[in-house]
């Protein structure tokens, strides 16, 4: 009986050991598999977002941007001035920006990337951030080179866009500083401009190969200042087609030009082609416009007027104020 009892005890002990071993075999792989995964995904993500990276939600997805940017390539040419305003000097920009007269003295040491379509050129520059327009055909390739942010043009006001760049680069304070200084200047000159112009209308017109472009409130050429900051009146046709529509621009024929021309006109040839603007400026229709007869036509810079970044806006503001308040 004693031996039988001892045997039962021994068998029971062996069974408990086996059950424990089986339980450990069932649990250990799951734990061992999960723990490294947690260490690889959670810990580095916390480090990247807090110490080394800023996680930015762009239209092309979540982008991890280095905190200490050194080598930014801006292919979305409208936004080079935003980075300059934030104290970040890009290492590469397009030829188009190089032609902007408002950037004179600010682009020294920056290399041209041509029209921005060469993936090989951008790769050779070893960037730590690439900024492109939404819809760039090389977006996927650029994203393999460095963190790449795609920007949809005109979806945000210039203030909002600068703040976005501030957020993604950790320089939101710089963005707010520029906006505060800009708002102060607008507050100083806006009453003077509105008093000088009154209820008269202002138009922005650029002849091109197939007609004339009329520009509104969010497409450069000073529209952000004229219609946005100063809240000056646009001709009714321009207001409807280019501003109320939200497009920022409208196509105009020579025949309909009088409907789009204001009491004041800011104009230049369009920079997108090489058409001779004299086909418009030399026409009887143009010469018969009240603004032309009253010497209220002001020539804007063909290349610089395209831009609506902080640097360009500052120069455009001075020009617009000068012209609208002169006797």
Automatic annotation (TrEMBL):
PROSITE patterns: FE_B12_PBP. Residues 1-23 form the signal peptide. The keyword Transport applies. GO terms for cellular component: outer membrane-bounded periplasmic space. GO terms for biological process: iron coordination entity transport. Residues 71-327 form the Fe/B12 periplasmic-binding domain. InterPro entries: ABC_transptr_periplasmic_BD, Bact_iron-sidero_bind. Keywords: Signal, Transport. It is found in: Cell envelope. The keyword Transcription regulation does not apply. SUPFAM superfamilies: Helical backbone' metal receptor. It comes from the Bacteria. Belongs to the bacterial solute-binding protein 8 family. This is Iron-hydroxamate ABC transporter substrate-binding protein.
């Amino acid at each position: 009986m004693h031996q039988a009892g001892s045997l039962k005890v021994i068998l029971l002990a062996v069974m408990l050991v086996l059950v424990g071993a089986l339980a450990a075999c069932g649990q250990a792989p799951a734990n061992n598999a999960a723990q490294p995964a947690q260490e690889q995904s959670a810990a580095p993500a916390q480090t990247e977002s807090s110490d080394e990276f800023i996680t930015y939600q762009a239209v092309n997805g979540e982008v991890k941007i280095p905190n200490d940017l050194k080598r930014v390539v801006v292919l979305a040419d409208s936004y080079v001035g935003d980075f300059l305003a934030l104290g970040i000097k890009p290492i590469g920009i397009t030829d188009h920006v190089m032609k902007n007269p408002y950037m004179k003295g600010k682009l020294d040491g920056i290399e041209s990337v041509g029209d921005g379509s060469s993936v090989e050129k951008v790769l050779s520059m070893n960037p730590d951030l690439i900024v492109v327009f939404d819809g760039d055909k090389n977006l996927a390739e650029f994203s393999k080179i460095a963190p790449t942010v795609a920007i949809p043009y005109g979806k945000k006001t210039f203030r909002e866009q600068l703040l976005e760049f501030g957020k993604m680069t950790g320089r939101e304070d710089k963005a707010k500083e520029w906006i505060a200084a800009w708002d102060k200047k607008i507050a100083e000159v806006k009453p003077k401009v509105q008093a000088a112009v009154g209820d008269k209308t202002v138009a922005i017109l650029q002849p091109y190969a197939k007609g004339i472009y009329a520009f509104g409130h969010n497409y450069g050429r000073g529209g952000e200042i004229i219609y946005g900051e100063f809240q000056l009146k646009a001709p009714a046709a321009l207001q409807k087609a280019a501003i109320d529509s939200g497009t920022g621009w409208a196509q105009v024929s020579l025949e309909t030009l009088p409907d789009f021309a204001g009491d004041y006109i800011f104009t230049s040839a369009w920079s997108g082609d090489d058409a001779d603007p004299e086909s418009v400026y030399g026409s009887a229709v143009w010469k018969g416009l009240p603004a032309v007869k009253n010497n209220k036509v002001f020539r804007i810079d063909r290349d610089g007027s395209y831009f609506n970044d902080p640097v360009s806006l500052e120069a455009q503001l001075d020009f617009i104020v000068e012209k609208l308040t002169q006797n």
